[in-house]
Amino acid sequence: MRRKRAQGIVRRGDPDYILFFTVLTLVALGIIMVFSASMVKSIRFFGHPYHYLFRQSIWAGLGLTGMYFLMNYDCWRYRNLIPYAYILSLVLLILVLIPGAGEMRDGARRWLGIGSLGFQPAEVAKLTTILFLADNLARTKEKIRQLVKGLGPYLVALGITFGLILLEPDLGTAVTIAGAAVVVLYIAGANLFHLTFLGLAAMPLLYFAIMSEDYRRNRFLAFLDPWKDPTGSGWQIIQALYALGSGGPFGTGVGYSRQKWSYLPQPDTDFIFAVIGEELGFFGTALVLLLFFTLAWRGYRTAMAAPDRYSCLLAAGFSTVITLQAVVNIGVATGSLPITGITLPFVSYGGSSLLMSLLSAGVLLNISRYANR
Q1: Neighbouring-strand partners of residue 104
Q2: Would the pLDDT of 8 be above 50?
Q3: Predicted local confidence at residue 232, as pLDDT
Q4: Residue 338 above 70 pLDDT?
Q5: Do residues 249 and 369 touch, judged by C-beta distance below 8 A?
Q6: What string of H, E and C letters represents the secondary structure of 4-55?
Q7: Per-domain residue ranges for the chain?
Q8: How would you class 50 by CB atoms within 10 Å of its CB: exposed for 0-12, middle for 13-18, buried for 19 or more?
Q9: What's the rounded Cα separation, in Å, for the pair 250 and 304?
């Protein structure tokens, strides 16, 4: 079967099976670990241990179906719909901030919907922002090297997205999107000096964003010295380190974590890597690192071998979002980064995150079918 592309006629081949099975392995590991990590919370609130397992399995089924569809549906075919999808994501980001529309959980207004049917617009924005950047940057080409006329419009668009997500507040997701956007802009040909200058100029704003909210400031200070307040702001980091340290080489066994018994907050989402370290040990965490390294390798390899500029930027963007999110989550769980509330892609509990990650993987797999062809 032949398809016309920007660089001639390209034959579609098989997807990158290494990437495909890496994603499947992460999803399978995630379902097992979500069941184990959420068991105590599920029994406490729902009277049985399977509540979060059922929900994660349903989202995994929906996500895998979407991944399979996008893997076989060429990313060029929906390119004309990208501007509308990006605008829709901005509308959802505005809607979630409206009292009565957005649902408040744990002091943040990040969810739309009612109860179990809720989803996070910020997760949708991850997908649409990369699509928007890849589509437009593929058309501008050399113009992107100009600071005002080339780079300026993208900075405005990203600033709006960043600001709306920050208002939820969700600094971790905002920084993840910004980091992936910088990589895409650089690959597209943006001047490195311009990007460096803008990055340095943004540092005071990031510092202000951290210090302007008490909970962010406390998290940052706890990162610097968690033992200064071991029963308060330093509690999460210390308990995560206890979990990782008690796992040893082979772990305590799946289901036998002690830290998930009300010691480690959010064991099935933000700190699921710590539970993996406790139950599967060093070799379990090493396996997770290897899987994400493999995903990044195959993702960037797909970008380098993509048949045109648009698909190259798309593959690089999605690879960066997934990789950066994994690095931040693992960094938080190991005490290497301040707590940000970022989930581990494909592994942590969360329908919106799992669905968007699998859809991103589907796009990557579709592009891999045309790589080097």
Answers
A1: 109
A2: no
A3: 83
A4: yes
A5: no
A6: EECCEEEECCCCCHHHHHHHHHHHHHHHHHHHHHHHHHHHHHHCCCCHHHHH
A7: 2-368
A8: middle
A9: 37
CA distances from 90 to 46, 54, 67 (A): 35, 31, 23
Amino acid at 79: R
Strands (E), 16-159: 102-105, 108-112
Structure tokens at 68: 């399979």
CB 290 within 8 A of CB 330: no
Q: Are 49 and 43 in contact (CB under 8 A)?
A: yes
> Residue 104, SS3?
strand
Average pLDDT over residues 272-279: 95
Nearest Cα neighbor of 66 from 127, 149, 140 is 127
Q: Does residue 36 carry a pLDDT above 50? A: yes
Q: Would you say 182 and 192 are in contact if contact means Cβ atoms under 8 Å apart? A: no
Tokens matching residue 140: 């501008």
Ramachandran bin of 248, using left for φ above 0, alpha for ψ from -120 to 50, beta for the remaining angles: left
List pLDDT tens digits, range 345-367: 999 998 889 999 999 999 999 99
- Non-local CB neighbours of 129 within 8 Å, separated by 6+ positions: 86, 89, 158, 161, 177, 180, 181
Q: Helices (H), strands (E): how many in the chain? A: 12, 4
Per-residue pLDDT of 71-115, as tens digits, reads 999 999 999 999 999 999 999 999 988 877 777 776 677 778 755
Closest CA to 258 of 36, 48, 31, 30: 36
